[in-house]
Amino acid sequence: MFSTSRGIAFVLAVSIALLLVAFLSLIDEVGSMVLLATAALSFSISYLLIHLSLEFLVFKEISNIYNVLEKIQRKDVSFKGVKKIKASLPPLKSIQTNINEYAAAKNREIETLQKNETFRKEFIADISHELKTPIFAAQGYIHTLLDGAVEDHSVRDKFLKRAAKSLNNLDNLVQDLITINQIESGFIRFLPVHFDLRETILEVIEQLEGKAHKRGIRIHFQHAPEERYYTYADREKIFRVLQNLVSNAIKYNKDEGEVSIQLKSHKNHLSVKIKDQGMGIHPEDLKRIFERFYRVEKSRSREKGGTGLGLAIVKHILEGHKSTISVSSILGKGSIFSFDLPVGNSPATLEKKG
């Protein structure tokens, strides 16, 4: 009886009616009909008020709390339709709100852990595959030599060069993994300096001209020759960003194509755009190309080489400079990678300030 609002309301209403009748019975002028009417009226009103109060202010909220707890036990904590409750409402409402917020926070935490677990599994699978490729290749060449091919000088030299190339790829992969882990962990500090971005781009072009020449690719640098493009950033890391993007533009370009590098100066920033004339990137792949080990099929296959970490490193380096890397692409026509850097000061300006 006492487990429901009706049972509690009935007992309390009877008690109130009996007390009121007992009190009125002490008055001589009050007749039995009045006492009966008073008892019926007081019972009805008391029962109705108590029942409604308990039902909507206590039992309904307790029921909601139990529903929330059941959802938590079932790991169903979507809480659709739950409204934000003001702190001025009754304690049971506040308790329910706190439980809702706690459960929602735990749900977000569980979702994050699940995403991290999925990412961990994918990462382990990816890195295992990436490591196996150069290791197995080097093993194959070395074991072939050990089985007797070492006596043939032409075969020996060819296989040793291929084994060395595989081990170099393995070393590059390990170095890229170390770099991206240090950046994500905050172990690598950015050391910004004022430098001419135009000169840095020219250094990258000079370094990669031989690679472009082998495929008949022209590198076209668009900028205002009379202007200086000073920026304030970590020169070494920005050099790596440019090196990676220009190298990719050459690697994934069509034979005898063109790589266009555009440098523009704006009021508060410098903008860099690197365009190739390759096969382009499918819209579905654009969202994922900055993920570790993500490779686009066909034009950006593993056959092109690389560790699969270059664009991820580019993304993290630019984020460390409070900038972002953006990409646009048209299938069959090529891709454009672009980013901004803050405007810096020239040596003359720095001397005046000093």
Automatic annotation (TrEMBL):
GO molecular function terms noted in the UniProt entry: phosphoprotein phosphatase activity; phosphorelay sensor kinase activity
Q: Where is the Histidine kinase domain?
A: 126-345
Enzyme class comes to transferase
Instruction: Extract the InterPro entries matched here.
Output: BphY/WalK/GraS-like (IPR050351), HATPase_C_sf (IPR036890), HATPase_dom (IPR003594), His_kinase_dom (IPR005467), HisK_dim/P_dom (IPR003661), HisK_dim/P_sf (IPR036097), Sig_transdc_His_kin-like_C (IPR004358)
According to its UniProt record, the EC number is 2.7.13.3
Keyword list (alphabetical) reads: Kinase, Membrane, Phosphoprotein, Transferase, Transmembrane, Transmembrane helix, Two-component regulatory system
Full protein name: histidine kinase
Protein source organism: Cyclobacterium xiamenense
